[in-house]
Amino acid sequence: MFNRILIANRGEIACRVIHTARALGIRTVAVYSDADRNALHVQLADQAVHIGESAATLSYIDQDKILKAAQETSSEAIHPGYGFLSENAGFARACEAAGIAFIGPSASAIESMGSKSRAKSIMGEAGVPLIPGYHGDDQSDEVLRKEADAMGYPVLLKATAGGGGKGMRAVQSADEFTEALTAARRESSASFGDDRMLIEKLIQRPRHVEVQVFCDGHGNGVYLAERDCSIQRRHQKVIEEAPAPGLSDDLRRAMGEAAVDAARAIDYLGAGTVEFLLDASGQFFFMEMNTRLQVEHPVTEMITGQDLVEWQLRVAAGDPLPLKQSDIRVDGHAMEARIYAEDTEQGFLPSTGVINYLRLPPEGPSLRIDTGVIEGSEISPYYDPMIAKLIVHGDTREEARRRLTSALSAFRVAGPASNIAFLYNIASLPAFAHCDLDTHFIERHNEDLFRAPPAQKNRDLAAAALSLLSLRQKANQSPGNDRFSPWADSRGWRMNTPHSQRFDVLCHGEEYLVELVDRGEYLELLLDDETATIRGNLQDDVLMLELDGHRYRGSFAREDGEYTVFWDDGAFHFAEKQLTILDSSAAAAGDGDFGAPMHGTVVALLVEPGTDVSAGDPVVVIEAMKMEQTLRAPSAGKVKGFRFSPGDLVDRGASLVDFVAESGQ
């Protein structure tokens, strides 16, 4: 076994490898870029080496830097994780030349599966079922068109060097072919520097079922059950589960044996995944082989009780496989949800920033969390925005599904946007519960999956007002404040009238004026023409609220003047609107500016620099909490310039405008 390995990756997978290596007594070396200087994998490893700037091409994909780090630290092997250099045949060959073990298959095996057309040829010779299609060398538009016509529509165009859905187009009829081919070639060329295409018969409502295979250097090969990865968006997996529901024992065995045949056909070594498309009749067809450990490998570990990273390390060190095929057992059902920092309402755009609040459901035999972040970690724009993988196990699929929904509701993160609500909607959808699965599941259920949780306006506004009141009370209790002064009374002291406080709250895309009246034993909530009785308090990050006799418990997070409350049925965000007003002395001195009322985005600059404005003229618009706020001139004067541009993020209180008031104002 190795004494020291270098992990040529970052984030969740680097942490995952470190945990197993440590359990085996293997010392680990992490590598990191500028952006990852304080990352969790750097903190967990026994040793860490800086390898360059934040961009992956200048750090994690720079083969020379990785190999130099391995040599300088006397690492005997390199684990590539997934992504980056994990399926780079040149890197595997470079490791071999440097006398460093590559924890993965040979360079020739990687090359064999790197080209979709070559892979299909090899699989066809090995007797692995293939989707009817064309993957020949003649790439003229005329030949491709002729093959598609002969196959019959619909067909699927795929880049031969592709992955992740790049260079892929579904063509429903002959009329669409030319335009789709042009677009697919263009995207493939831009993504892979290669515009060669293959054509497959498009299977209607297919399931994506993949088989985990393992081979050693002693001629042994096994499969460790299968996974269903049909829940995808843009060909990227979202929720995976194992075993695949609804398959007969004969079908499982046939797929497993075909996967091992595929691996043997290229003299495979280590962990690999053979991916199949499964049609409604139970026929399966080879799609591709991933020559690395998969992101979703934990669901296989949960149902087999095996540590696949440990298997990788042992096989790479020359050991035989730990188990024979007849010894592998499957117990229960497992599901994995990929939690990403992304804005599902903005086309799943990656969301960056510091994770300022993170609360995880408790781990145990039935719940596992693989992550590379902690509270305070930053999701940078340079890498995949994964926050964590949430994995659950149950005796049955339904038990696993229920545990998944429960764990998602308890998984609470604030800072960057996340896809947790979207994942919860998938897991709780009746179609998912009833195993009505195919690769177009998300498109078919788009309306249900992108629904917002039902807003409970009064509950949320009561929680917002109670939270803001508690924060004011704590501020007034700080050292230096006279807590006996009625002028500092955060309850809103008034002579001969009940104490009251007003809050201008931005919530659910609207602005609300909320008033809390202190009635002694309780607070009275005044909202529009409605009243309600509330009690409760905010202690640290736990919010207790009683609204008209109904009790709620939530978690509370704050960042830059914005707040999040997490309930069991979802979360909501709010802020207190506090417009900054210029005082006359500052304006007269010529150094006045406009302060951002809250953390937000500059939307528009309404005047040109050098423009004279009158009091009340609109000058700049920012968006916060899904609402636009227009900042107006506090007096007549001149807008000398702006300190931000449209699209820029600004912090609460940031100076937005250089403004000089007219003399005498």
TrEMBL record:
<dbReference type="InterPro" id="IPR016185">
    <property type="entry name" value="PreATP-grasp_dom_sf"/>
</dbReference>
<keyword id="KW-0547">Nucleotide-binding</keyword>
<dbReference type="Pfam" id="PF00364">
    <property type="entry name" value="Biotin_lipoyl"/>
</dbReference>
<dbReference type="InterPro" id="IPR011764">
    <property type="entry name" value="Biotin_carboxylation_dom"/>
</dbReference>
<protein>
    <submittedName>
        <fullName>Acetyl/propionyl/methylcrotonyl-CoA carboxylase subunit alpha</fullName>
    </submittedName>
</protein>
<keyword id="KW-0436">Ligase</keyword>
<dbReference type="Pfam" id="PF21139">
    <property type="entry name" value="BT_MCC_alpha"/>
</dbReference>
<dbReference type="InterPro" id="IPR011054">
    <property type="entry name" value="Rudment_hybrid_motif"/>
</dbReference>
<dbReference type="Pfam" id="PF00289">
    <property type="entry name" value="Biotin_carb_N"/>
</dbReference>
<keyword id="KW-0092">Biotin</keyword>
<dbReference type="InterPro" id="IPR001882">
    <property type="entry name" value="Biotin_BS"/>
</dbReference>
<dbReference type="InterPro" id="IPR011761">
    <property type="entry name" value="ATP-grasp"/>
</dbReference>
<dbReference type="InterPro" id="IPR050856">
    <property type="entry name" value="Biotin_carboxylase_complex"/>
</dbReference>
<dbReference type="InterPro" id="IPR005479">
    <property type="entry name" value="CPAse_ATP-bd"/>
</dbReference>
<dbReference type="InterPro" id="IPR000089">
    <property type="entry name" value="Biotin_lipoyl"/>
</dbReference>
<dbReference type="InterPro" id="IPR048429">
    <property type="entry name" value="MCC_alpha_BT"/>
</dbReference>
<dbReference type="InterPro" id="IPR005481">
    <property type="entry name" value="BC-like_N"/>
</dbReference>
<dbReference type="InterPro" id="IPR011053">
    <property type="entry name" value="Single_hybrid_motif"/>
</dbReference>
<dbReference type="Pfam" id="PF02785">
    <property type="entry name" value="Biotin_carb_C"/>
</dbReference>
<feature type="domain" description="Biotin carboxylation">
    <location>
        <begin position="1"/>
        <end position="447"/>
    </location>
</feature>
<feature type="domain" description="ATP-grasp">
    <location>
        <begin position="120"/>
        <end position="317"/>
    </location>
</feature>
<dbReference type="Pfam" id="PF02786">
    <property type="entry name" value="CPSase_L_D2"/>
</dbReference>
<feature type="domain" description="Lipoyl-binding">
    <location>
        <begin position="591"/>
        <end position="660"/>
    </location>
</feature>
<dbReference type="InterPro" id="IPR005482">
    <property type="entry name" value="Biotin_COase_C"/>
</dbReference>
<keyword id="KW-0067">ATP-binding</keyword>
<dbReference type="InterPro" id="IPR013815">
    <property type="entry name" value="ATP_grasp_subdomain_1"/>
</dbReference>
